[in-house]
Every structure is written in structure tokens, then in C-alpha cells.
Amino acid sequence: MHRFTRFAKLTLLVAIICLICTGFAASAFGQSVEAKVKTAYLYSLLRGSTWPAESHPDDSSPYKVVIVGTDHLDGHLDRVAEKKRINHRKIVLQRVRDLHSVGDAHLLYLPGGSRELIKAAAKATAGQPILIVGEGKDALASGAEVGFYLDDAGAVAVVINPTAAQKRKLSIDDTMMTIRANAGR
Fold first, then answer.
1. According to the CATH classification, is domain 36-180 in 3.40.50?
2. CB–CB of 51/86 below 8 Å?
3. Which stretch is the leader sequence (predicted)?
């Protein structure tokens, strides 16, 4: 009887450890899927958007993506930037800590969902042809043209404000409007 109790406790302990590990793996898997979906969408935004001609000083100038803060994309965006081209142009990533280094970005990615940061970015880049992509349900209300958030099912949802993009002399392809409804599903 004493051995059975010890065995039962050991079995329970192993089961708990397995459940905890499974939870961590599922969480990591979910983060990986989220990172891949966001990366794919950022790349698609670069491909499916049009900037004014003066945004590219010459035929070889790259698309510049500036990321403010930590992106949690698990290196997926770096791999895309290394391997992919858009109209024969490279994609250059620049990671910065604050908005002072935005410069001549084409796409400004503001991960983390800070309303204050999105508002500050919109104000600092007003009138410039820079596509601001924020995170959080209120990203558009804060001044971003594109926003990522997790919907009630935990899938990545994307919202786009084409009117705000037009005010920045940007055009977002209609196919992006269709994809946004299905992103992450």
C-alpha cells in the first residue's frame, strides 16, 4: 500500500510536469505562429503598398523598415529581409529604441501596442510617406495606418485605414483589404 501511494505521487508529479511542459510548448508554438503571420503580413504590406516616386531616390534604393523596440518576431522578418526582394529592391531592417532615428523609413513597425508611441510616431512623421504599423485594437485610433491585434479566438487580426494611408501619399492594394479579414486563420 505504501509503495502504491509513492508510485501514485510520482505518477502525479510526472503528469503535472508533462502538462506544464505541454503548456509551454503550446504557448511557444502560438507565439511562433503569431510571429510568422505578422512577418508575412509586414512583407505583404511592403509588396502591396505604393509609395511616391521620391521615396526611392534611385532604382536600387532599398525598402527601409524601421522597428522601434523589441519586435518578438523570432528572427522571421530578418530572414525575409535577407532572402526576398520587392521590385529588385532589397529590404533593409533598422532597429531603434526611439523615434529619433526613423529617418527615411518606408514602413515603421511599432510592436507592443503603446498608444503613446503610436501617437508620437504619427505626429513626428505627419505628412511623410511612412506606413505606420502598430499593435493593439486601438492602433488605428492612435494614428497607425495598419494595426495587428489578437482576436477573441487568439488569431492575429489586421485592421487597415486606407484613408489615413492616402493622406500620407500611400496606396494600399485592394488585395490587402481582403487578406486582412482572414489573417491568422
1. yes
2. no
3. 1-25
